[in-house]
Write a structure and sequence with these properties.
- The chain has a 5-stranded mixed beta barrel, surrounded by 4 helices.
- The longest helix has 41 residues.
- A hairpin with a 6-residue loop joins β3 and β4.
- It starts with a strand and ends with a helix.
- By secondary structure, the chain is an alpha/beta fold.
Length: 266
């Protein structure tokens, strides 16, 4: 079994609709689903942040005893060629703890590379499904990068292709347990776009906070309405790309695993 660990319900909504999923009990306010079909992974949604992601990954390992783990979700682009709905496959994952004021000193000693078969399966998935994709470093930061300046800095100083809030923690937890892992993300916002601050003020759990919070924000800051509408459209594209990717990835991973079994037994 493969477990896919994400942050938010809206990232996984399309995957859950397309598979035969049943919600199961999970600790804290994590959300978990078990699929009745081997063609889909189990899904665990932790909410935002490395601490939550690490705890969710540890629980998922105990609950499912997975043969592999894939971290998935939305990301912010940190290169100018990545567009909403593009898939980013991690060649490396890097953690930048703390606030942006502490990022000036970049320590890349915690940089990690994914399992070779997981990486190959991800590359195969985007190629056979026709998704636009990029291959590079995905950096984990403590909060969503909502400004173009922060995203540009991450792209230039760290040479990151995308920024997320939890992938490194999932990868580190899987590595500590000796479980193969991979990281993939779907671009939500372009590098040069600024997002309204409300995007990072809606709580840390996996569940949607509802439209009320956005309505209240727009009533106080009406100039943010176009940006929020743009993010809504981008979210739909990013979720659709993840749904397409996961289906193709599972097929590719199964085929590659079967192909490697005879060689492993010799």
């Amino acid at each position: 079994m493969i477990v896919a660990i994400g942050s938010l319900r809206r990232e996984a909504a399309g995957i859950i609709r397309s598979g035969e999923y049943t919600a199961i009990e999970a600790p804290e306010d994590f959300v978990a689903y078990r699929s009745e079909s081997e063609e889909y992974p189990a899904i665990v949604l932790s909410g935002s942040g490395s601490d939550r992601a690490a705890r969710a990954a540890k629980w998922a390992i105990e609950e499912f005893s997975p043969e592999a783990i894939v971290s998935f979700g939305f990301c912010g682009a940190t290169k100018n060629y990545a567009r909403s709905g593009d898939i980013v496959i991690a060649a490396r994952v890097l953690d930048l703890p703390g606030s942006p004021f502490e990022w000036s000193i970049v320590d890349d000693t915690n940089s990690m590379g994914p399992d070779r078969t997981m990486l190959l399966a991800a590359r195969t998935a985007v190629e056979i499904s026709g998704l636009d994709f990029h291959h590079g470093t995905i950096v984990t930061i403590s909060k969503v990068a909502t400004t173009s300046g922060a995203k540009k800095w991450l792209g230039e100083a760290v040479n990151a292709t995308a920024a997320v809030t939890s992938a490194h923690a999932v990868a580190a937890t899987a590595s500590a347990a000796g479980i193969p892992w991979g990281v993939v993300a779907s671009v939500l916002d372009d590098r040069d776009s600024d997002s309204p601050a409300v995007v990072d003020r809606l709580g840390s759990g996996p569940n949607e906070r509802g439209i009320t919070a956005y309505i209240k924000h727009v009533s106080n800051t009406p100039q943010d309405l176009p940006a929020l509408m743009r993010l809504g459209r981008s979210s739909t594209r990013a979720s659709a790309s993840l749904t397409t990717f996961i289906t193709a990835f599972m097929q590719a991973q199964t085929a590659l695993t079967k192909a490697e079994q005879p060689a492993a037994s010799e």
